[in-house]
């Protein structure tokens, strides 16, 4: 039988105050105990700040952690791939805008990975009809592969692949090298701001949930949707003063606050975070060898209290392994998968990288081999639509 210990209401309050919001359900049992006089098993307890037991003796790890160099390599490779796709897409747009007189390159379908809302629509279309949409199918495959990666490896898309996440990370690293530290918003501002990305996500989800398969197909085949990627490029090519100031504000905020855009505003990351809650993989801490040095919590870019929790279940965890990299104690902090009822097995960084690469390249390779990657439209359609991209009317999708 597990040892049973009663906890006081102030102890529960202390735990909840320190805990990341997504972990609070873990402590529902504690609250139930307070209200219903139930009991709390010892293995579910978290230590309060006022009751610090004697530290464990440090058994220093003897392995060399290379997780961050592996992750940085993945980030650079994926960012380079995106730059390549971006340049090719720009040249293709210039060709279409010139009426076919400029140097001709093929349209890189990978650019559709930058259209996650369309990807969400396509996923719904696929779930209803069992068919992959013909238009911008690459977007559907990329969106699906990022969802699967987030399910298997927590929100690893954000910290291993996403070019915006990479830029964001380098900005706060730049800020840290200049100011010697990153800054955190006070808790009263942090929690409401974190919900902003879910608010934006719920607006998109509400719009997509209301669409039938027929209305999604109608939208995807509309002139507006056919060149929505060109409109996105034009948005940044001919950026207005207000938008430029907003972007500059985000860049400056990202230098001071770690992952400002991702943490507070990115609905895509919010969605992937919700998917990652279902993941069996998570960071686990062995309390019996942990020396409570708190290096893991200080290193966590998502400001999670890694040193206080036995497992990190938060939707904010991006599987970056920064906490694992700095932990000095042997076999104490691991990215893990369940093995049996109460045991977990460590997943090394190289196998995470290999898994992410296999999932990404596997899905893309499947789409290419089966001939579903490219949108096959006659050149004349693009030559007609691209020069007038910003004049296309948005089709308001009907609900039925
Ligand atoms: S808990 Fe660890 S793996 Fe998760 S975001 Fe924080 S540092 Fe990265
Ligand atoms: S880094 Fe975290 S998990 Fe590792 S010993 Fe220190 S407090 Fe414990």
Short characterization:
This protein is mainly alpha-helical and 400 residues long. Helix content is 54%, strand content 5%.
Secondary structure: elements and pairs:
Blueprint: E1 4-5, H1 9-18, H2 28-36, E2 40-41, H3 67-97, H4 116-129, H5 137-152, H6 156-161, H7 163-179, H8 187-209, H9 213-220, H10 223-226, H11 228-237, H12 241-256, H13 260-264, H14 267-276, E3 282-285, H15 295-299, H16 322-326, E4 333-339, E5 343-346, H17 349-369, H18 379-385
Antiparallel strand pairs: 1-2, 3-4, 4-5
The fraction of residues in strands falls at under 5%
Strand order of the largest sheet: 3-4-5
Mean pLDDT equals 86
Bound molecules: iron/sulfur cluster
H/E series: EHHEHHHHHHHHHHHHEHHEEHH
């Amino acid at each position: 039988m597990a040892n049973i210990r009663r906890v006081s209401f102030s102890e529960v309050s202390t735990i909840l105050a320190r805990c990341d919001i997504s972990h609070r359900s873990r402590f529902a049992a504690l609250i139930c105990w307070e209200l219903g006089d139930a009991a709390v098993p010892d293995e579910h307890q978290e230590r309060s700040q006022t009751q610090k037991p004697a530290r464990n003796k440090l058994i220093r790890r003897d392995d060399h952690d290379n997780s961050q160099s592996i992750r940085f390599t993945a980030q650079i490779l994926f960012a380079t791939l995106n730059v390549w796709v971006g340049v090719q897409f720009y040249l293709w747009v210039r060709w279409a805008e010139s009426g076919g007189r400029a140097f001709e390159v093929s349209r890189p379908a990978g650019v559709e990975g930058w259209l996650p809302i369309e990807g969400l629509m396509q996923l719904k279309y696929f779930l209803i009809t069992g068919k992959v949409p013909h238009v911008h199918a690459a977007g559907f495959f990329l969106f699906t592969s990022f969802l699967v990666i987030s399910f298997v490896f927590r929100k690893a898309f954000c910290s291993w692949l996403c070019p915006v996440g990479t830029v964001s990370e380098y900005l706060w690293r730049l800020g840290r090298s200049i100011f010697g530290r990153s800054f955190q918003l006070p808790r009263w501002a942090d929690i409401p701001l974190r919900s902003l990305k879910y608010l934006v996500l719920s607006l998109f989800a509400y719009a997509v949930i209301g669409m039938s398969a027929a209305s999604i197909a109608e939208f995807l085949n509309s002139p507006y949707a056919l060149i929505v990627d060109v409109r996105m490029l034009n948005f940044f090519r001919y950026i207005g003063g207000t938008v430029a100031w907003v972007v500059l504000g985000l860049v400056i905020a990202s230098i001071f606050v770690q992952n400002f855009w991702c943490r507070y505003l990115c609905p895509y990351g919010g969605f992937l975070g919700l998917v990652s809650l279902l993941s069996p993989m998570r960071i686990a801490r062995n309390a019996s060898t942990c020396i409570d040095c708190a290096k893991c919590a200080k290193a966590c870019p998502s400001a999670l209290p890694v040193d206080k929790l036995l497992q990190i279940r938060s939707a904010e965890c991006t599987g970056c392994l920064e906490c694992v990299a700095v932990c000095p104690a042997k076999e104490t902090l691991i990215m893990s998968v369940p093995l049996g009822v109460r045991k977990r097995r460590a997943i090394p960084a190289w196998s995470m990288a290999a898994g992410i690469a296999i999932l990404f390249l596997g899905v893309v390779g499947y789409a290419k081999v089966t001939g579903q990657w490219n949108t096959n439209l006659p050149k004349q359609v693009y030559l007609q639509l691209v020069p007038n991209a910003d004049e296309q009317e948005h089709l308001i999708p009907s609900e039925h």
